[in-house]
User: Which sequence fits this backbone?
């Protein structure tokens, strides 16, 4: 995975952080794309992930391991369809891209990232899901992502959402843009969701993102079946 990636991703120069004080940081940027290294901090990379259109959004899965082998691709139904995203963000009406989460943390066995945008591409929501061989592997990856997000400049933790076994949320600012993102772990699964671009960080949008994250976590768990592994 890309070096310096974290739970939060930055799109168009913005980053996203996780949601649990101890869990992992959330991505406010894209889960898909390359990484831009900003420099190390406390042994953890301070890089942002490049999004499909610009700088990547912050996300739980954004704290990748450069030495990790490529994970398999999770089924498309692991991530909610665009109709569900539009329900929470009416201007976001199309699926722009999908593929493996190239910024996953640790060594997931499989992953999927989907980028949704408005018609003009200025508003973006990114959802990603990573499945690990065991709950222990997922928990370790989650903690690594959280710590990396906390160390990122400009990161401010937000109230921890009630999602999965542990969750983390926060905002991150790069330049003039501020983004919000969150991540959650449930068993062997790590889910992250962020918004970026022209979607402002407001209480209503934050609540919408949390509700979307809850729906995505349920969708991923139903698609992947019983967690298993310890």
Assistant:
């Amino acid at each position: 995975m890309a070096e310096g990636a974290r739970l939060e991703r930055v799109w168009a120069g913005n980053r996203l952080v996780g949601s649990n004080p101890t869990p992992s940081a959330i991505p406010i940027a894209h889960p898909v794309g390359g990484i831009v290294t900003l420099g190390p901090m406390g042994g953890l990379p301070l890089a942002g992930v490049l999004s499909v259109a610009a700088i990547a959004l912050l996300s739980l899965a954004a704290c990748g391991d450069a030495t990790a082998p490529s994970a398999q691709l999770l089924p498309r139904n692991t991530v909610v369809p665009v109709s569900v995203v539009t329900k929470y963000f009416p201007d976001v009406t199309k699926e722009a891209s999908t593929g493996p989460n190239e910024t996953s943390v640790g060594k997931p066995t499989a992953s999927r990232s989907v980028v949704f945008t408005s018609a003009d591409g200025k508003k973006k929501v990114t959802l990603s899901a990573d499945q690990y061989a065991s709950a222990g592997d997922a928990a370790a990856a989650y903690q690594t992502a959280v710590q990396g997000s906390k160390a990122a400049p400009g990161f401010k933790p937000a109230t921890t959402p009630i999602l999965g076994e542990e969750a983390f949320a926060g905002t991150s600012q790069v330049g003039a843009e501020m983004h919000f993102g969150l991540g959650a772990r449930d068993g062997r699964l790590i889910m992250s969701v962020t918004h970026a671009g022209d979607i402002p960080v407001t209480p209503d949008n934050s609540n919408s993102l949390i509700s979307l994250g809850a729906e995505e976590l349920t969708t991923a768990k139903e698609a992947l079946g019983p967690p298993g592994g310890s």
Notes: Confidence is low (pLDDT under 50) at residues 1-68. The chain has one domain: 16-224.
